[in-house]
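Students often ask why we bother encoding 3D structure as a string. The short answer is that it lets us treat folding as translation between two languages. Here is a chain of 274 residues written in the first language.
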Amino acid sequence: MTSGDAGAAADPALAGAAADPAPAGVAAGLAPAGVAADLAPAGVAEPAPGPAAVVSLEAFIRAWTTLAAPPLIPEITLYLSHEEPTVLWEHTERETGRADLPPPFWAYPWAGGIALARYLLDQPGQVAGQTVLDLASGSGLVAIVAARLGAAEVTASDIDPVATTAIGLNAEVNGAALTVCTADLLATGHVSHSDLLSHTGLVLVGDAFYERRMAHHALGFLRRMREAGARVLIGDPGRAYLPPGLTALASYAVPAWAGLEDTEIKPTTVWELP
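And here it is in the second language, the structure alphabet:
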């Protein structure tokens, strides 16, 4: 769980984290001391290093992840990473040539999204025939499950460009038809995307309450959607800013993806916003 106000998929361990710097000399492309100078003949200028190769987002995702089923969801395969999140973040920025990217939430299966996806798979009638919005979609897991279960329309929303690329790749792998929305719905959705939102009957949110500002904007958006008549389901393992007053629907013992959580099993609940 999807990385920005509308697109973060969710984990407090990454919020505000900075990528680890490369070892001294490596990031600058320097050879070990005394080696580079000996390679050029006397009097011949050493050629200037060229720019780092920049790969497409699709190529990066395929190169740095593997197709795997998230815990508890054998029905779905996603492009997932086994790298430490900050290590993958560093590789993402270096190989894509972009320093403005958020943490790679899209590359990991978060407990809230897993629980919500499992709930829908166990209760397919909750989503069949619905017009669905998956907010902060991340990898697209919940949106893909909704599409596979017969939702009439599914929109996966995330503002991270790597996440939205991953959602497209993951949807293709799983034969899921959905639309990807790159707009910041938390900031402008109620105005600039009124058509989409007015037709949405079910809003799904996995692991979006890990940071105060994100939680504040997400809750305001979800309350507006609820007041407009949409049903709102939230998967969350009890993050710091999960709002009170929610109705518990189901609970799952979610095996944590290596390196993401502080425990091997993350008890996680699917909630409904009343």
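Translate back mentally: The domain at 1-21+54-274 is CATH 3.40.50.150 (Rossmann fold). Keep this in mind for the problem set.
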